[in-house]
Amino acid sequence: MPGKFTVSLTCAKNDSDKATVAFVVANAAVASDKDTVVFLSTEGVRLAVPGYADDIAEDGFAPLKQLMINFAAAGGKIYVCSPCFKRRKLDETALVPGAVIVGGAKLVEFMGEACPSVSY
Length: 120
Fold this sequence. Notes:
Blueprint: E1 4-9, H1 16-31, E2 35-40, H2 64-73, E3 77-81, H3 82-87, E4 99-102, H4 104-111, E5 117-119
Parallel strand pairs: 1-2, 1-5, 2-3, 3-4
């Protein structure tokens, strides 16, 4: 099933269940041959910091760190909201694999005309 898919995630440790499920869905999309982006905004940008997700594990799911590693290894892209990241004074030089800091225009460009999306 070629095409695109976007998962928008605004949570991190403040709602680790949503953060985990977002990456479960993102992995399903990339495994279905979708060009997949996870867009991290607000508190979700913290997941782009190496080590931050290391201790997040929800019952019944793989640990979030492993889900993120699998997603990037499968070709998934993680877009990190630039203003959100800067507002939290995080280190832009250290990001998890697959992550890139972008402005909103990059997300709009990716989604284009026909791109299903889900939000968590």
